[in-house]
Specification:
The protein is α/β, with parallel strands linked by helices. The protein has helices at residues 15-30, 43-54, 65-69, 86-96, 107-121, 139-150, 156-160, 168-176, 181-185; strands at residues 2-6, 34-37, 59-64, 79-83, 99-102, 129-132, 162-165. A 7-stranded parallel beta sheet has the order 4-3-2-1-5-6-7, sandwiched between helices. Pfam families: Lysine_decarbox.
Length: 186
């Protein structure tokens, strides 16, 4: 299994983010789960890549030329795919991955999560989408999704399709046991 990990190019203000990301990377490697990510060596992106690699796992990066040229590319990956732009980056990551997981991050992380989640809702893929909710980081987003459902803009099953986990073991179990919504409806 290869999981695309979306996360911050910064470390965040609380050590729980780096510590939890490091623990996830270690468990992924131990469980034989490969990581697909944005290809950078900075922030949580670098932390997850380093943790997987340090524990014998495989990491596949996808980075736009402009970011590689700013010397942000991780130099020890299993494979590094260099693409023209962010659109190609997301498309290539989606091709490589069997699922999508958002860790703490900024607006880029949210944008990537929302695109993968939307594609799943529309049936463009049937891969798991999830959040690694370290320290309740995504609680406000989940509350907003509930507000959207109560207001009639989001069906309950599309909230339920998001894997929500706050430990590496729960992430792995949920991704391995994921049943796409379209299979639940038939």
């Amino acid at each position: 299994m290869k999981i695309a990990v979306y996360c911050g190019s910064r470390m965040g203000n609380d050590p729980i983010y780096a510590d939890g990301t490091r623990a996830l990377g270690k468990r992924f490697a131990e469980a034989g789960i490969d990581v697909v990510f944005g290809g950078g060596h900075v922030g949580l992106m670098g932390v997850v890549a380093d943790a997987v690699l340090e524990h014998g796992g495989r990491v596949f990066g996808v980075i736009p030329e402009a970011l590689r040229d700013r010397e942000l590319a991780h130099d020890r990956l299993t494979e590094l795919h260099v693409v023209s732009d962010m659109h190609q980056r997301k498309a290539r990551m989606a091709e490589l991955a069997d699922g999508f997981l958002a860790l703490p991050g900024g607006i880029g992380t949210l944008e990537e999560l929302f695109e993968a989640w939307t594609w799943g809702q529309l049936g463009f893929h049937h891969k798991p989408c999830g959040i690694y909710n370290l320290g309740g980081f995504y609680d406000p987003l989940l509350a907003q999704a509930e507000t959207m459902a109560r207001a009639g803009f989001l069906n309950r099953e599309y909230i339920d399709m998001i894997v929500q986990a706050d430990t590496p073991e729960a992430v792995i179990e949920a991704f391995r046991n994921y049943v796409p919504p379209h299979e639940k409806w038939t």
